[in-house]
Design goal:
The protein has 13 helices and 21 strands. It has about 400 residues and is of the alpha/beta class. The strands form four sheets. It has an eight-stranded mixed sheet with strand order 7-6-15-16-17-14-18-21. A hairpin with a 5-residue loop joins strand 16 and strand 17. About 45% of the residues are buried. Bound molecules: adenosine-5-diphosphoribose and P-hydroxybenzoic acid (PHB). The site of adenosine-5-diphosphoribose (APR) has 28 residues, from helix 1 and helix 10. The site of adenosine-5-diphosphoribose has 28 residues, from helix 1 and helix 10.
């Protein structure tokens, strides 16, 4: 039997960030991660950080490399009908975003946790949560054939969409909301300079495309693809050929192609589970909500959840007040639903829906035309993209 104050399930960005912020407040945590460290770090995920997330990573003491290697972007471009339109975040909101891979954020948080000697159990299998609806919860896991129990005050479920935490909440105590989109994103990672200094989101009659990056020498490209398509259908050459078809001539001229160092297809889904709490079990990040990647909100929502949750735990341990923990679900969900709306809207205006009618197509074109011609509409996009206040 081990003992800690907050048992955290999952060593993704949500669990690691929470672990660091609580450690800095003198609150004890143990993180249980079912996979190995290398497996977690091998995941390729997005990489656009709101200023709020950047600030939290700083507060967690894991920002040195991000400050050195991260790319600050003042804006982004949207291409439609072969023309690119720039959305100037800086001018419209006074704010910017940071392009820095989620894998790097995860690595920096892992290093920061190791540096302070806070415990993480990797390859912790068959994690189960017990008595979450009492004031003496516990978590059990198996490692190297041994079972261990951890007695704790609280459990933070940061174990992603497929984790055990949300599944522990009885069905009668949980409401879920979901939208599954009729297409996926085929992504490729290549060690070639990006074709533009900023991200380029593309609405094309052949489908959506996105030109992103990880650094000045590593680029990330995405194509909207059918859900029935397989990676075998997409040799590198076919990917580059299809991308060229969806880009404007200037982008094609600047595109540098090469062998994929990673290639994957991801489905698109919007999902929210309410409330993000069951007794002394609190959900954060993908364990409670999923957004389609079009709005670059996945990691940023995990960060805002952790901002609210870490401050609520500090309020409990320093002032013996449950107020923050009791209001956590309402506060976190209010921001989650705004990001869900923005991510759904970005997906609506930038993708081609198989079942859409001519009328839908005209509406989409009018929405984009309005966006490109209206400072007010661009400001709405910009303030959601750079991140709404916590
Ligand atoms: N026991 C222990 N660990 C688990 C379990 C379990 N039963 N199930 C899942 N995990 C671990 C996973 O292996 C993973 O490392 O929990 C971690 C969850 O991490 P993420 O899926 O990265 O979720 P989160 O930390 O909430 O980060 C959200 O990730 O998917 C992106 O777009 C998303 O950017 C967002 C971010
Ligand atoms: C990425 O860089 O992988 C990325 C960027 C922006 C998005 C989605 C993904 O909206």
């Amino acid at each position: 039997m081990l003992r800690t104050q907050v048992a955290i399930i999952g060593a993704g960005p949500a669990g690691l960030l929470l672990g660091q912020l609580l450690h800095r407040a003198g609150i004890g945590t143990i993180i249980l991660e079912q996979r190995s460290k290398d497996y977690v770090l091998a995941r390729i995920r997005a990489g656009v950080l709101e200023q709020g997330a950047v600030g939290l990573i700083e507060e967690a003491g894991a920002s040195a490399r991000m400050r050195q290697e991260g790319l600050v972007h003042d804006g982004t471009e949207i291409a439609f009908g072969g023309v690119r339109y720039r959305i100037d975040f800086q001018a419209l909101t006074g704010k910017t975003v940071m392009v820095y891979g989620q894998t790097e954020v995860t690595r920096d948080l892992m290093d920061a946790r190791e540096a302070v000697g806070a415990p993480t159990v990797y390859e912790a299998l068959d994690v189960t949560i017990h008595a979450a609806d009492t004031d003496r919860p516990s978590v059990r896991y198996r490692k190297d054939g041994h079972e261990t129990d951890i007695a704790c005050d609280f459990v933070a479920g940061c174990d992603g969409f497929h984790g055990v935490s949300r599944q522990t909440i009885p069905e009668h105590a949980l409401r879920t909301y979901e939208r599954v989109y009729p297409f996926g994103w085929l992504g490729i990672l290549v060690d070639k300079p990006p074709l533009s200094d900023e991200l380029v989101y593309v609405n094309h009659e052949r489908g959506f495309a996105l030109c992103s990056m990880r650094s000045a020498t590593r680029s990330r490209y995405y194509l909207q693809c059918g859900l029935d398509e397989h990676l075998d259908d997409w040799p590198d050459d076919k990917f580059w050929e299809e991308l060229r078809r969806r880009l404007d001539p200037e982008a094609v001229a600047r595109l540098q192609t090469g062998p994929a160092i990673e290639k994957s297809i991801a489905p698109l889904r919007s999902f929210v589970a309410e409330p993000m709490r069951f007794g002394r079990l609190f959900l954060a990040g993908d364990a409670a909500h999923i957004v389609p990647p079009t709005g670059a909100k996945g990691l940023n929502l995990a960060a805002s959840d952790v901002a609210y949750l870490s401050r609520a735990f500090v309020e409990w341990y320093q002032r013996n007040s449950m107020a923050g923990l009791d209001t956590y679900p309402r506060r976190a969900l209010a921001r989650v639903w705004k990001a869900e709306r923005f991510s759904w809207w970005m997906t609506q205006i930038l993708h081609r829906f198989p079942e859409s009618s001519g009328f839908d197509g005209k509406l989409q074109a009018a929405e984009l035309d309005y966006l490109f011609g209206s400072k007010a509409a661009q400001t709405v996009l910009a303030e959601n993209y750079v991140g709404l206040p916590y």
